[in-house]
Every structure is written in C-alpha cells, then in structure tokens.
Amino acid sequence: MNRFELTAAPVDLAAQREALKHPGSGGFCAFEGWVRNNNEGREVSGLEYEAYTELAIAEGERILAEATERYGVLAASAVHRVGNLAIGDLAVWIGVSAPHRDEAFRACRYIIDEIKHRLPIWKKEHYLEGDHAWVACSHTERAHELEPPHAHGHHHHPHTVVPAHPEKGASPEKGASVGAQCLHAVTRESLDPSVRWGDEQKSFTPDYSRQVRLREVGEGGQRKLADARVLVIGAGGLGVPVISYLAGAGVGTLGIVDGDVLDASNLHRQVMYDARDIGQRKVDLAARRVARLNPSVEVVTYEQPLHAGDIADVFTGYDLVVECTDDLASRYLANDAAVLTSTPLVLASVYQYEGQLQVVTAEPGEPCLRCLWPDPPAPALAGSCVESGVLGPVPGVLGTMQAMEALKLLLGLPQPADHALQLVNLLDGTSQRLPIDASRGCALHGGCVAVARRALERAHTEGELERHFDRLDAAVQSGYAIVDVREPDEIDAAPLHVTSLRMPSGAISADTLRHLERPVLLVCASGRRSAHATRLLREQGVDAWSLAGGVAALADPAVS
Known about the structure:
Heterotetramer of 2 MoaD subunits and 2 MoaE subunits. Also stable as homodimer. The enzyme changes between these two forms during catalysis. This protein is α/β, with parallel strands linked by helices. The chain has helices at about 15-20, 55-70, 100-120, 200, 210, 220-225, 240-250, 280-295, 310-315, 330-340, 370, 385-390, 395-410, 450-460, 470-475, 490-495, 530-540; strands spanning about 1-5, 25-35, 40, 40-50, 75-80, 85, 90-100, 120-125, 130-135, 185, 230-235, 255, 300, 320-325, 345-350, 355-360, 420-425, 430-435, 465, 480-485, 500, 520-525, 545. Mean pLDDT is about 80; it is low at about 135-180 and about 185-200.
C-alpha cells in the first residue's frame, strides 16, 4: 500500500503506522520534519505551505512507487502539511515498512530527498519582526546509499520544479539582468563574408505552397505571416525550434534576444548549431541560420537580456512574444510586459522528460502566469538540467509546440475554449490540461494589469542592485570584497582567480559578511542567484551588490 497525502489537519501518527503494518515486515523506518523557530539566523514565528495539489499528489505517489520498486519495500506512505503551521508542528511524515531494516532505511531516505527536490510545494517563513518571505535552501545530498535518515528531522525545506521545469543551457542559470541593450537588424549584406549569399541565393523565392494549401491558411494567411512581427526571447533548446519553424513559415520579422555564447553542452539539444560554432554568440548564429533558411525574413537581434526598464517598449514593437529562456525571472518579466502592452505571449518550460505550455492572451479577464503562480520561487528552489539532466528532444518538442501556438495566434486558427496549463510527459506519452481560474489569482489583487504594473516597477527598482565589471580584478581594485555564491562543483569547474569568500547562496547570511567592513560583490554563474541573495542581504543592512550577468559576463573568466 503506497499513499501520498496533502493535508491541512494534524497528522494522525498512530493511524499512519497502523496502515503500514504487514505480516512480512521486519523493518520499519519513519521520518518526521518539524517546524523550528529559526532559519539562517532569523527567528521564525511560523510557516505557511502552498502546493499545486494535483501535480504534488501525482508526483508524490510516483516517488513512493519508485522507492517501492527500487528497494523492494512492502509499503510506503508520506503526508505533507499545507496551510499555516506553528513552531513545533509536524510538517512532513514519511513511513516505510520492508522485510529488512536496510531496505526501509534506504527507501525512506530516497523518498525524503525526492520529495524535497521534485514536489511543487512552496514554503513561506513568517518572522518575529513581522515580515515574511518565500525561502530557498541549499540542495540536499541525493546519495541514496548513505546512512539511514534520522528518526526525527529538522526544518523541512521542500524544493520544487513547478513552475520552473527549466531547460538549462551551459551555465546553471541565465539572468534577465539589467544591462545595456544591443539591437541589430540582420540582412544578407550584414553577414560575415563567409556566409554571404551567391547570386542564385539572393534571387531565392520561398515556396509556401504546402501550408498555403491549408484552407485555414491560404494566400490571406500567408500575407498575415509576412506582415507579422514576433519576438523570441532565448535562442537555446526551446528557442531553436521556435526560430526555425517561424522563419520557415515566413514570419516577416523575427526579433531574437539572447546574451549567451554557445557551449559544447548545448549541442545535444540545440541542433540549429554545430561544433564549429562553439564560443560564438547564439544570437548571431541564430540570425545567420534564419538568413540561410529564409532570406525573406528580417531579423532584429538583442545581444543583452531585456530588463524592466526597456522590456515594455520592446514588446510594443511586436505582435507576439515567445518566451524560450530557462530563467524564471525572465518568464515573469515577459508576462508582466505582455499584460501591460496587451501582447500575446507563449510560455514553455521543461524538466527532465516533462514540459509545460501556457498561452497568455493578454486580453482583459483572461488569466496570466501570475494568476497561476503569483510569485516565482527563489532561484535555489528551481531544479536545473545541470543537476537533473535533460534529453535533447524534450525541449525540441516543447519548442515546436510553442511555434505551433504562435502560428495559431498569428493566423487566427481555433483555440481551446478553456485557458489551461498544458502538461506533457514524454516518457508515457500523456498530456493533460489544468484549467486556470481567472477569477482567482490576480483578480483578487486588482487584476492582471495592476499586478503586472506593480511587479514591473518593483523589478525596475531591484535592477539597481547590480554592478557591471568585465574583470573581477577591477572590482577588487574598486574596493569590493568578492563573495562566490556558486556551489562547490561549479567553483571547481570554473574557479575565480581573485581572492574570494566561498559561500553557497542557500547558506549566505549577513552575520558572516558584516565583519568585512566594505561593500561585497556577490558572484554566481549568470547573476540570478547572486541578485536574489543581494536582495536578502540588503534587507539585513549589508552593503551588497550582484555582478551583472555573473561569471558568464566576464570578458575572460579564466583570468577573472
């Protein structure tokens, strides 16, 4: 008997243990996670848990089934509380019965770690000083063959993959960081001489006969596509199929936003590029690919991520936006700008073998991303493919679905009557739609436009937390203490060659930095985790700053 349960009521421990009794059981192991009165130096008065119920239960039961099969246990059960919890309350209980104690120990440890990493459950801490915050924590060690878990655990920190499900690139994150925007119009004549066109290519006329033959498209639909302007944010695993199919379909103008360079680890899923392109900017590579595929398409490139100060102005120049990054901050920023400018937006994300797709029509009364998830979880709560892995076809499928939704919007093709989040599981080939109730979410806080406006204003203010340096030795010379907030394996793979404190973002605290008596510059892979940690430190009175763009933005990371 396996059972995963979410409940707002206290856990009946006697009933849970009784349900796990089995005549063949020789070992029983249980884990209890309680609410404690402090976390990372702050006094806590209580917790609040929120969960995406349908997904949490489905994923929780999947985890129990995996543990049962993996360790040969007889029964497993898990209960996670939701709602408001007081100090000392039991937040999570896990029990396993097995023929022998070793299987029970290992299965219990497996379930704890997997619940922590995979379930869409969020935790808000309430502090004695009166404020509150959605909190992140460092990742647990997922070595399932280690010692058994303690019978009574401490403060439970569930991790989540929803709404993130991010499809990661070469670095663990890409920031929607504030920075100068670079915009270029790309034509055949502006390309590098090695990729310019011969006379026969300059006279090339695209052949759209196969799609024009469709009754719903026709010549009129093709003219709509030729007149359309679409902005694609991100030229990675999701963006590659979007860019390719929209260019192939004859969309007149494509805007492409990406500040990354191509890494060898990208190639297994970003198949628009090849090994000769490693080290070059993706936005340039994508523009050249479009020019080769369909020279009638005009490409406008943005080599820096959009930010709160310019994103709304950029969106007004396009009929439709397709968000294809692996960055939650970018996704929420795009949602807010879309709502404020009434620009339709197509969102997608991936996690391992699964994906999510949402169309934000940006029409009054219809839901947006924040109607489903009001605020993004902290960066450390979002799993990455660096940690979790991803098969190349997964972002390819989701990106192709984004391209289809974009073409449906541009051509006025039929849309589903409901407004839902579409979930795709590529292992078992299933798909389901989870309705989004427009009467809740943003509607409870003044509506999507009001919520988006406040969020964009807040993001613009928070953009002042960054400092731009091409080299870290210049930052040191300017008087900053460098604090590397990456994980140890990231630091080992790409160490900084300046004196720095090493302190993972999930463990950073004001008390450990105040003694420095000078401003601190936090550094991570791309600026996302460091920006989040900077905001927390600023609230505690530390003169903290975030390196804009992170290590990826340094002119030569090898020498910092």
